[in-house]
Amino acid sequence: MFERFTKDARAVVTGAVEHAEGAGAGTVDAEHLLLALLDREASRSSFALAALGLAERKESVREALGEARRRAGLSQAEADALAGLGIDVAEIVARVEEVHGVGAMSGDRKDKGWWSGRRSFSREAKDTLERSLRIAVAHRDRHIGDEHILLALTARPGAPAEVLADHGVTNASLTRVLYGEGEAKAG
Question: Which spans are transmembrane here (predicted)?
Answer without folding.
Answer: none
